[in-house]
Amino acid sequence: MALLNMFKKDETGPIEVDPKVEAFLDGYSIEVMPRTAEKIEDFRDLLPAGTRVYIAHIEGTPIAEMVATAKRLADEGYPVMPHFPARIIKDEATLREWITMYQGEAGVDQALLLAGGVDKPHGDYHSSMQLLESGAFGDAGFKRLHVAGHPEGNKDIDPKGGTAEVDAALRWKQTFSETSDADMALATQFCFEAGPVIAWADSLKAAGIDIPIHIGVAGPAKLQTLIKFSIACGVGASLKVLQKRAKDVTKLLLPFDPDQFIGELAAHKAANPDFNITNVHFFPLGGIKTNARWAIENGGSSAVPVSLSQG
Question: What is this structure's pTM?
């Protein structure tokens, strides 16, 4: 039975799913941390089989916890993509040790490489480009490597404003992608306004950067929660979408979901099949179960996880 026939907003009938949104959500991924993952008894009750699960590596999280989380998710049938934040990796020996641990314990063959949110590097690395240059992932036969994308710029990379350094890094990554055997993609920070994201994606294509984009989307959460995380994560101009809503104090405690943002991107993708945003990547800021339910109710699966079908 199709999933959309199994979820009901009320007793009047099945949820109506926008086919454009359903197509856009195909192959979506989601992000977890070890401390949030341990609260989930079984991810098979929440996520469709084959969903790519990123594991965020926050400074101070022991590598053993990261690897244990990867093994648990892999054992439950999910392809795992751990973060490798350059600035918390001491040296090449440490990098290769982590790769060996992930491969040996969880069969990991994909990774998200990023600079990481640490001001002062812990060792030899300060950027994802250095991790790529090390050759460690190629030597280990990693099949997929994702790197960060910044639709609204990044003040850590361009502290004086503008996008000169971000753009230069993207050109470097494009060149690397042309010589790498690994499939590459840009995984972006979450945003809230579709128009500027579309313009950014189009500008990359015009500049000859054809690495597919996996757009970051904040899952449903209270408005206060989203504003807090947006400020902490450096979300730029699209934060105004939340701030405008926050002016109505009656809405501060109400859920804010990505319906409009994803709907507009999905409509653009349907009208422009060559649009270079190919996938959705969820940040479940309001909780994994809440995000999983929203995705499924909007057509992001073809099979019903047990616990959600039971309400």
Answer: 0.87
